[in-house]
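Budget justification note: compute hours in this period were largely spent on complex prediction jobs such as the one shown. Inputs:
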Amino acid sequence: MKLRELAHSRTGDKGNTVNISVIAYDEKHYPWLEQHVTAAVVKAHFGELVKGEVIRYQLPNIGALNFVLKDALAGGVTRSLALDAHGKTFSSAMMALELPPPPGSAA
Amino acid sequence: MTLRIGSGAGYSGDRIEPAVELAQSGRLDYLAFECLAERTIAIDQQKRLKNPEEGYDPLLEARMRAVLPICLEKGVRIITNMGAANPLSALAKVAAICREMGLGPVRLAAVTGDDVLDQVRQRDLILEETGQPASALGSRLVSANAYLGAAPMVEALRRGAQVVVTGRVADPALFLAPMIHHFNWGMDDWSRLGQGTIIGHLLECAGQITGGYFADPGCKDVAGLARLGFPLAEVEPDGSAVITKVEGSGGRITLATCKEQMLYELHDPAAYLTPDVTADFSGVRFTDLGNDRVGVGGGTGRVKPPTLKVCVGYVDSYIGEGQIGYAGPGALDRARLGAEIVRERLKLTGVRHSELRVDYIGLDSLHGPGLSRPATQPYEVRLRVAGRTETPAEAERIGNEVETLYTNGPAAGGGVTKGVRQVLAMASAYLPREAVQPELHIQEVPR
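Corresponding output:
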């Protein structure tokens, strides 16, 4: 299944770094996300788009993960040649991530 | 004792009617406008260099004309960073508007001292992103502004200012200042300052917590985005708050909108650095109270950082760009041929560029070929070529080479657009607090 079925997401930018949240619609799915949406999985998913490291922060208090992707904006918001210099659309790429359906889900 | 603070703008060009709606119907004590992105102040500084009267937010006048009469009548105090690169000119402008509209007597204030270009030059600070000293930029250095905290705004409020205009201040501080003033919080009450900072962080992007930057039909539906309401916080003396909006306005406030905005532009949730506090959001809790009301508590904080962050703006380069569209069978092949021709032309005609980027809009322009993986040939595709140059003349040649594809390139290319822009890049540096001296300016407009 796609991550979009279990979680929603928003991108923020700072310099050449973006952060992408992954927030469980239902907090009961948070442990599943924590298990399957790791920093390594996200780094591999974004491939050449993200040149630097990916750091993951866990926020069980709100059922969310926060990914910080470094060297990800083609030189940074203010210099980038990219159309989407802020990386505003990156959350949509995150939502396309494939993961196994959680136990007991209809999918 | 509940304090009501509204958010009237999430960026410089934001909609104005939702701020009017908040002023009119939000039963507010304060209305704050956050209008300074990282680069905005460097652009405004360039305007100021051309005309010393300018350099404040281009929408300052329109916004003030729209909200000032209502706010002054209802006793709503305004706090904004629309002073941008020229808070004193902004102050004079607001005073002129008050006189012209007959709104006196009114006390206005401006905060300066964020402009630290001289200090950056004298100390020749190292820029974090480039690792080079500021002096390496020579005449390309345009602006340097330190993020000020809440203290000078609190002082302005203490002295009775009804409108406070600043340059660069930390975004959440625009909202934290009225909390500190109203509840008489100590400037070392880290826990409350941290909780106040999460409220400011949630409000500072205005519509981004009421359903803007959120809707995704079928997954996350939001009604009324064309008349999206902007948020307000009802803050209690202990710093806990309810985020809500004017009844009947568009959009929605839910746990999901609040969580997305809490994580927006956040890195380590336990260490959100501001000039006032090292805020800790890791224990924040939201409570859905229904009817577009969400409670927020559990934010805390630790001692503030010893240095202030400085945003340094400099002229980096020029970007030239051209676009052309192709459609129907073979559209993508013709776009690719067009790109090859432009690359070869730039080489043949000696247009120097340090970077060149080719995008196929409709195919892979946003996330690159790796993530995009198109299933079928697109019906239409738009070729975009963008390159970085040292001079505007060379940048112009890039767009021109896309344009000449009309008569010299693949069949049936249409709808060319082209442009050149100067790149004002931003870098960061850090100054000890003692090096930055905020200054308060009070102006009275008589009846």
